[in-house]
């Protein structure tokens, strides 16, 4: 099914996604893409972010896909493992999890709280973890371990940093194809 016909929940990471970010560009292109309305992008609290995601999914017409970046990926994992209602989980068709950050890594934001021990539970929906070979926030081995634990596919896009606006991906057609493959 084409992305134009999908309900997609966009989950940016720490400090939100700016104008040149692939998430923002996708939202501008597809009216059915909705960004999770986090109260505080600069001081993320895991439980709060998970509850906001749960409310967003509950208010959505299913099925939905997640387009998550960075801390948004960890939010999906924590939400599915500890916060999601069965009704909300049943609405999720799949998740694109891009640039998963390592909470134990030296670059992980000190302002983020509650994201420590990453859930090792298999996600109850299809998912693909996408990584860069030079992401300062999460190494290849960490992203592969998350993909294995979560039952996700794993894709590398080579040296693209944190797979954000600075990566120069534009509309990132490859990412759109991966997202559409889970519809």
TrEMBL record:
**Which Gene3D superfamilies does its entry note?**
alpha/beta hydrolase
One function term, GO molecular function aspect = hydrolase activity
According to its UniProt record, what is one Pfam family this protein matches?
Answer: Ser_hydrolase
Q: Which SUPFAM superfamilies match?
A: alpha/beta-Hydrolases (SSF53474)
Q: Which domain of life is it from?
A: Bacteria
TM helices/strands, residue ranges: none
InterPro entries cross-referenced by the UniProt entry: AB_hydrolase_fold, RBBP9/YdeN
Q: What is this protein called?
A: Alpha/beta hydrolase
């Amino acid at each position: 099914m084409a992305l134009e016909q999908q309900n997609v929940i966009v989950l940016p990471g720490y400090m939100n996604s700016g104008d040149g970010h692939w998430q923002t560009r996708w939202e501008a292109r597809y009216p059915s893409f909705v960004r999770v309305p986090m109260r505080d992008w600069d001081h993320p609290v895991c439980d709060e972010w998970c509850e906001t995601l749960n409310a967003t999914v509950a208010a959505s017409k299913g099925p939905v896909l997640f387009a998550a970046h960075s801390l948004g990926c960890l939010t999906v994992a924590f939400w599915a493992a500890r916060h999601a209602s069965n009704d909300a989980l049943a609405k999720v068709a799949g998740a694109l999890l891009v640039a998963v950050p390592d909470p134990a890594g030296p670059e992980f934001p000190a302002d983020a709280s509650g994201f420590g021990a990453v859930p090792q539970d298999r996600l109850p929906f299809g998912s693909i973890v996408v990584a860069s070979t030079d992401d300062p926030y999460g190494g290849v081995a960490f992203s592969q371990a998350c993909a294995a634990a979560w039952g996700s596919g794993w894709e590398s896009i080579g040296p693209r940093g944190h797979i954000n606006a600075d990566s120069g991906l534009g509309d990132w057609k490859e990412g759109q194809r991966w997202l559409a493959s889970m519809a």
